[in-house]
Amino acid sequence: MSTRPVIGIFDSGFGGLTVMRSLLRLVPQADYIYLGDTARLPYGSKSRETIARYAVGSARFLEARGAELLVVACNTASALALDALQAEARIPVLGVIQPGASAAAAAAPGSGVLVLATEATVQSHAYARACAEHGLQAYEKACPLLVPLVEEGWTDHPVTEEVARLYLAEAFADARAAGISPTTILLGCTHYPLLQPLLERVLRTHFAGTPVRILDSAEATARVVAQQLAATAGLPAAQPQCSFYATDSVAKFERLGSRFLGQPIGQVQLIDLGG
Amino acid sequence: MSTRPVIGIFDSGFGGLTVMRSLLRLVPQADYIYLGDTARLPYGSKSRETIARYAVGSARFLEARGAELLVVACNTASALALDALQAEARIPVLGVIQPGASAAAAAAPGSGVLVLATEATVQSHAYARACAEHGLQAYEKACPLLVPLVEEGWTDHPVTEEVARLYLAEAFADARAAGISPTTILLGCTHYPLLQPLLERVLRTHFAGTPVRILDSAEATARVVAQQLAATAGLPAAQPQCSFYATDSVAKFERLGSRFLGQPIGQVQLIDLGG
Questions:
Q1: What is the mean pLDDT of residues B239-267?
Q2: Residues of chain B with C-beta less than 8 angstroms from the C-beta of A40
Q3: Which residues of chain A are within 8 Å of residue B159 when distances are taken between CB atoms?
């Protein structure tokens, strides 16, 4: 590409804005179209067929708007619908799970990984499979309270610390019982990067004997995109153009979105994808 | 009705099973059809038009299955779609908000009420309006973490106690700042009855000087149904026949449902309402 590439980012909500935040830092030579399928979130409670249908509809919208690369910034859709998307889309499609597993392997080859994720992502075992392909043993821990705690804004709150401590204690004990000694924690949910400072503090305070680094799939995915678009890295610097679309509840998107994106979010346009 | 009435119960998920639990106790002479629109939950993040469309579709399904009375056991749908449902349905439709407000007025006429509910229900101000119609001043407090805490099974957990303490402290302070001194707490979310023992303990421990009773809309709604069906109360006692339908994610419904219903839940049948 000799012109600025256009990257489409798709998520069930606004959580994928953490992926976009990393992309804006690592791939500033691109323009961005973000679609949050907020009318139909959460994907986590839905079947594979339903999620694939929703995801393909969203991909078509982003293609029609000019996206040349589709980033599925949704762990559930990456886990359950990446095959369907890659079969249906006419542009390259990248999920967040393979980059996360690959980054964990690069950081500590052959090590144990603790994957923190939503219940749906854990039940899919997509991270365990991706980690195994990279020679890593993964223990997957569902942390259903972390998303609502982040959305409540309690990213630096004693209650969240206590919940994180309880989840990590259970996870380390269960991982050890399964013969896995994690040296990497992989954040397998787009909301969790906002908790990274708190998680690091909890690890230092309560698990000092457990030397663990934290990686997140959002950052890892942005690095893969940066590599794929390396040929365009020399394009003249310009402020990326960013468009935001949602299928419902624009108010919450606009209210919480800037916290996830790490910068003010412009107007979010409401669209109807049916259903 | 001289035969056993058939009551249709509709919710966006399985939370409305707390309403059904109260109904089974107070109206055992009826049979029940429960529909959880799990494919499209949560309603809380969706627009009024979308919720009304979903709710009307669900009402039609329950009518077609023989329901003679429709209980909207979903605070969000009661707040945003009761008018549409009453206009479209051919059977009587009862929501949970009016009965809740009415019960609060009966318990303490002219008093202050603290309504605990989800963000969507609070934003609709449906409880404040219904309470005002009954001569009550209501302060509505959104408690977004309580649903995920209940679904995590932490209904008797120190973290939930601390979250409840924080929410109640904020709510009492904000209510007083608004000139309202609550003597009644109204649980305006179908998940919250499972927290009533914990909330009573938190009130005793941390708010001993605040004499407050807890009422819940689920119980209040069941009492209204019992009154409406009083003519059938003498029907021969028999075990109510109960059917359960969901539009997706039957597994979670079956796993968590029995806790909400207070008794084992039978098989949940998956149906497709489109969308």
A1: 88
A2: 40
A3: 159, 162-163, 166
Task: Provide CB contacts within 8 A for B106, sequence distance 6+.
Answer: none
Range A54-58 contact pairs with CB under 8 angstroms and sequence separation of 24 or more: A54/A12, A54/A81, A54/A273, A54/A275, A55/A10, A55/A81, A55/A84, A55/A85, A56/A81, A56/A84, A56/A85, A56/A88, A56/A89, A57/A273, A57/A274, A57/A275, A58/A10, A58/A273
Question: Which chain A residues touch B158 with a CB distance below 8 Å?
Answer: 162
Q: Give backbone dihedrals phi and psi of A29, rounded to 5 degrees, phi first.
A: -85, 5
B39: chain A residues, CB-CB within 8 Å: 46, 50
Does B189 qualify as catalytic in the annotation? yes
A166 shares contact with chain B (CB less than 8 Å): yes
- The ipTM (two decimal places) reads 0.87
Residue-level pLDDT at B210: 82
Query: Are the C-beta atoms of A248 and A14 separated by less than 8 Å?
Result: no
**β-sheet bridge partners, residue B186:** B115, B215
> Do B248 and A145 lie within an 8 Å CB cutoff?
no
Q: Which pLDDT band, with edges at 50, 70 and 90, does B38 fall under?
A: confident
For a pLDDT cut of 90, what percent of chain B falls above it? Answer: 77
Contact criterion met (CB < 8 Å) for B145 and A148 = yes
> What token pair was written down for B123?
């934003």
Work out the minimum CA distance from B39 to partner chain A, whole angstroms.
Answer: 6
Domain limits of chain B? 6-95+220-270, 97-218
Hey, what CATH class is B97-218 in?
alpha beta
pLDDT tens readout for residues A226-236:
999 988 888 87
pLDDT of residue B47 exceeding 90, the answer is no
Going by C-beta distance under 8 Å and a sequence separation of 6 or more, which residues neighbour residue A173? none
Closest to A159 (Cβ–Cβ): which among B148, B163, B275? B163
Top-tier CATH class for A97-217:
alpha beta
Does the distance separating the beta carbons of B41 and A50 come in below 8 Å?
A: no
SS3 (DSSP) at B235: coil
Which residue ranges in chain A fall short of pLDDT 50?
Answer: 1
Q: How confident is the model at residue B45 (pLDDT cuts 50, 70, 90)?
A: low
The answer to whether A144 contacts B162, with C-beta atoms less than 8 Å apart, is no
Q: Rounded to a whole number, what is the distance in Å from the CA of B221 to chain A's nearest CA?
A: 28
Domain A6-95+220-270 carries which CATH code? 3.40.50.1860
CB contact under 8 A, B151 and A144: yes
Same CATH topology for B6-95+220-270 and B97-218: the answer is yes
Give the pLDDT confidence score for residue B46 in this predicted structure: 74
Model pLDDT, residue B116: 97
User: What does the pLDDT read at residue A45?
Assistant: 67
Q: Coil, strand or helix: which one is B26?
A: helix
Report the pLDDT value the prediction gives residue B191, as an integer from 0 to 100: 95
Task: Indicate if A131 belongs to the active site.
Answer: no
